[in-house]
Structure formats: structure tokens, C-alpha cells
Amino acid sequence: MKYSLTLITGNENKFREIKNFLSNYNIELEKIDLDINEIQSENLEEIILDFIQKAYKMLKKPVIAEDSGLFIRSLKGFPGPYSSYVYKTLGNEGILKLMEGIDDRYAEFKCALAYKDEENEKVFLGISAGYISEKIRGKGWGFDPIFIPKGSNITFGEMNIEEKNKYSHRGKSLSLFVNWFSENYLKKSS
Fold it and tell me: What DSSP character marks residue 159?
């Protein structure tokens, strides 16, 4: 039996990655872009919980959404939850410029994925540790071409979707979600 979920996003790349991952678990995904004001917070979980509550209130059906951020240790966690805005304004070139002459290139990509239905509201946090490359490598989207995950020598931008999902913060939060969802929904309906 296939289960259908609605992802709240306007980001086609994010939709493709999540859809690709969930298709392996008989979960069909549709995408809706809702105009929802995000709260300002340093905490991804707080941001996504508020967002998913508003989305569920509007649609009244099971929804998922996620918020991600790149947290660079030597920049005191910048850009963090402001990653989308920073990417649009500074881009990868701007981050690399900020990192010039800095030896500590450790960074974490974090993804807070939230699910909400009538009975449940849950957040799944995935973290991918790695470091910022010296130059832009590969295509990808967002900060993918400058982030090298631990255990790899190539950037997310040089990986295909399947490879990236093995390492990525989004893949990790999706794995946590699928495990929980399987236990609570998929097994009950089969």
C-alpha cells in the first residue's frame, strides 16, 4: 500500500531529493508551496515546528516540511538558520571569501524535518559533519559545491542524489522519519 504525504516547500531541488528518498519506502510525495511567515530564531527545530503547525492548520492533512542550515564553527555557527538568505546574498563565493586564511574549516549541515497530522507532531534532526572546501567544486544547489561531508573527499555538489542522501543531513533526518513513520503508520496499514 502506498501512503501519500504533502511536502510544504517552494524549492524544487529539495522536493526532488525528498521525493527520491521516500519513493524507496512506498511513500508518494506531493508538493505545495504555501505563503507562511517563518518565525526568526536561532533554533531550526523551533522554526520548523511553528511552520508545520501553520501548514497543518491551513491544509488539515498530513504534512512534512524541513528547514536546513549550514553551521560553520570558525564563523560562530554562521550562517545557521539564515543560510537561504545568506546564499541568495553572498553565495558560495561570499562564504569562501569569509573563510580566507581560516584553518578551522569544520562545518555542519543540519536539517530539522517535521511531520504533523491530527494526532502527531514530531521533529527529526539530521546532522552531517564535514568541512568547507577551498574552492567551489561541482554543481549542486545552495552550499552543496563547498561542503565536503566527513568520510568523503568530494563535495555534495559533486554527488548524485543517491550518493548525497547517504551522507546528507536531509538523508539522515529522512531516515529517522521513515523509521518512525514505518513503525507508526506503514506497518499498521499493511
Answer: S
Name the pTM for this structure: 0.89
Catalytic residue among 67, 103, 104, 144: 67
Contact 45, 55 (CB under 8 A): no
Burial class (CB in 10 A: 0-12, 13-18, 19+), 153: exposed
CA distance 169 to 66: 11
Sorted by where each starts, the structural domains of the chain and their CATH numbers stand as 3-189 (3.90.950.10)
Q: Is 67 a catalytic residue?
A: yes
Query: In angstroms, how far is CA 48 from the centroid of its own chain?
Result: 11
Residue-wise pLDDT tens digits, 5-54: 999 999 998 999 899 999 888 899 999 999 999 898 989 999 999 999 99
